[in-house]
Design goal:
The complex is a heterodimer of chains A (about 130) and B (about 180).
Chain A lengths: L3 E3 L7 E5 L4 E8 L4 H18 L8 E11 L1 H15 L7 E9 L3 H14 L3 E6 L2
Parallel strand pairs in A: 3-4, 4-5, 5-6
Antiparallel strand pairs in A: 1-2, 2-3
Chain B lengths: L7 H11 L2 E7 L3 H16 L5 H21 L8 E8 L2 E10 L1 H16 L2 H13 L11 H10 L4 E6 L5 E8 L5
Helix pairs in contact in B: 2-3, 3-6, 5-6
Classes of the chains: A alpha/beta (about 130), B alpha+beta (about 180).
Chain lengths: ~130, ~180
């Protein structure tokens, strides 16, 4: 399955979803002009991954890394849905390791991570970075 | 065109300094302008010499305010919008003003009334409800921006509507960023 790579811009995050390399990372700022359009491509990739999981050489542990510097309120909603798609991988007996990075003083970004834990029930590990 | 007065512009500049206006924009707002303004603001908030989380909240509120103005603003009539970040003895505020249609007045009044009516826990609940509500598609994030502004400011949203000669309403809004608690 082809990797999904999106280079970052000033207002969209970098996305690297690469099954062969075991890399699932999204990082940077998220306040796209058209949030739906931006996340739709990631959703489609995830849907394809879920559909074809049984036919692919897949790992038993999958690590997702979310490292946003900034996320606006409309992206917030789309990231929640993305996490629910990640959660769907649990049906294949996959162990998910999800990391939510935030700058240590950024308590607001930490709170967003906590909110996602509550809303998805996923074992998201909150990782603080020194600034 | 009138001649440049001896002190006019200097007085305006002094007034802005006195009022601690850190960032002021008056003009048309569209996504290209918002992107440009936020590009400048991202660096500007880092130069304010304030703690990390305050700088981040000012930027955060600025993003949501400007995006809201683009979304709710009435662009049919060309009336400049205004956006201001200032501080009073280190307490920062963000203020906006833009023309809105009569339909929008009703929506904003209802939403802002609801936001100002609840405490912080109530606000979090409102936000969470909208975050997980997919009933009308993901793009329906009605009010999330304003709720987020109130949450980040940790206070009420002051607002007012004034009749505008162009037949619409001029919507003014201000939040003071409360870092205590």
């Amino acid at each position: 399955m082809d990797a999904l790579i999106k280079e970052p811009t000033e207002y969209t995050p970098k996305v690297v979803f690469d099954l062969a390399k075991g890399l699932f990372e999204i990082s940077g700022d998220s306040r796209p002009e058209n949030t739906r359009k931006f996340y739709r491509q990631i959703y489609e990739w995830m849907d394809k991954l879920i559909e074809s999981w049984g036919q692919l050489a897949t790992p038993s542990v999958v690590r997702f890394k979310f490292a946003f510097d900034y996320i606006n309120s409309s992206s917030n909603k789309f990231v929640l849905q993305l996490l629910l798609k990640v959660k769907a991988l649990e049906q294949f007996g996959v162990t998910l390791m999800i990391e939510w990075y935030y700058d240590e003083p950024d308590t607001d970004m930490r709170e967003i991570g906590e909110e996602y834990i509550e809303l998805t029930g996923l074992p998201i590990n909150l990782v603080s970075l020194e600034v | 065109m009138t001649q440049l007065g001896e002190t006019t512009f200097y007085e305006l500049h002094k007034g802005m300094q006195k009022e601690n206006m850190d960032f002021l924009y008056k003009g048309q707002l569209n996504t290209a302008v918002v992107d440009a303004l936020l590009g400048i603001l991202k660096r500007k908030v880092q130069d304010l010499g304030v703690e990390y989380i305050l700088a981040k909240r000012i930027y955060n509120i600025a993003v949501e305010c400007l995006e809201n103005m683009c979304q709710h603003g009435d662009t049919e009539v060309e009336v400049d919008s205004i956006f201001l970040i200032g501080n009073e003895k280190g307490t920062f505020y963000v203020a906006t003003g833009n023309l809105v249609s009569d339909d929008t007045v009703g929506k904003l009044t209802g939403l802002l009334g609801k936001i100002n009516d609840v405490d912080r826990e109530g606000l979090k609940e409102l936000y969470r409800d909208r975050l997980s509500d997919t009933s009308e598609g993901l793009s329906n994030n009605a009010g999330m921006g304003l709720i987020d502004i109130a949450l980040k400011a940790n206070g009420k949203i002051e607002y007012r509507f004034n009749d505008h000669p162009k037949g619409k309403q001029f919507f003014s809004m201000q939040v003071i960023i409360n870092m205590a608690g």
